[in-house]
Fold this sequence. Notes:
Blueprint: H1 3-13, H2 18-25, H3 29-36, H4 44-53, H5 59-63
Amino acid sequence: MKTGKYLKRMRLQKNLTQVELGELIGKPVLRICEWENDLYTIKLSVIMEIATALKIKNFNKILKD
């Protein structure tokens, strides 16, 4: 599974739109869309920032296919 799908799963798990996630982490909605569609690689530090902002502690649920 590609990284974008994991990001989308994290976002949907918290019932957020791309706009809401972008506002939460200070990134434009276009960037969220590009990440979710795997047009740009997400740095691990950004993934951790997103997980922290969304208060996700158990990655097993997200990383499970």
